[in-house]
């Protein structure tokens, strides 16, 4: 089981706090969905949690250890990070791109350890990339590249996975596949923290919900407890109706100013 925490994390840019005094602690494992309006600090907070950005104040912790003090190779073994809008700069084969996720686990010298080939094949199949195995990564569509980057993040079997908009550019089938895979990791004791703009997906798949507003933590807790129409009104300025029925969840909403002008409700 893996825990992650933030203690009074603040990040400033140009004198403005884009992440402002954020503190939280996850339980062992779980799927934490981070919901936030555009420009409210989500990518910066995820980068701090991943150990890629040093905060101006506070600290991020992985199993009680400050991530900024951890050995970089050890940190890379224990957590994987998938940024928003990943890019492929070199025309290497998809299988080689995915295999790069094993870099922190490989010896510095000598040959490659056995057992890599089955893991690579499984990772490609899990993300529906078997047919693209030998294709140049630079020729993939946006959705295919997103799946390849997710496979790269998963192949090393990290204890924690931090992903920024993992369903961006994916069609409905692959969106659901990605969400099922992330939830499956959480159910097996891994910690998943994912920024999601689709509130319905967050409601259906996450165990916990974290909401930011103007860089500050607005809510954090079990999804069914903290996801409310009031929270969505504060975060996204929408009037929402949330339907929980038989394990399925639907979030329907309309812009608050439209609702006020027309009398419409979600």
What fraction of residues sit in β-strands? 25-35%
Number of β-strand runs: 12
Q: Tell me about the largest β-sheet.
A: 6 strands, mixed
Envelope shape = globular
Q: What's the domain count?
A: 2
What value does the Rg take, in angstroms? 19 Å
CATH architectural grouping of the largest domain: 3-Layer(aba) Sandwich
Mean pLDDT: 87
Question: Which fold does the CATH topology of the largest domain refer to?
Answer: Rossmann fold
Question: Which class do the helix and strand fractions yield?
Answer: alpha/beta
How would you describe the overall organization of this protein?
- There is one protein chain.
- This protein has 266 residues and is α/β, with parallel strands linked by helices.
- It folds into 2 domains: 4-227, P-loop containing nucleotide triphosphate hydrolases (Rossmann fold); 228-266, no CATH class.
- The chain has a 6-stranded mixed sheet with strand order 6-7-8-3-9-10, with helices on both faces.
- Strand 1 (4-13) and strand 2 form a beta hairpin.
- The protein contains 10 helices and 12 strands.
- Helix 4 packs antiparallel against helix 5 (142-155).
- The mean pLDDT is 87.
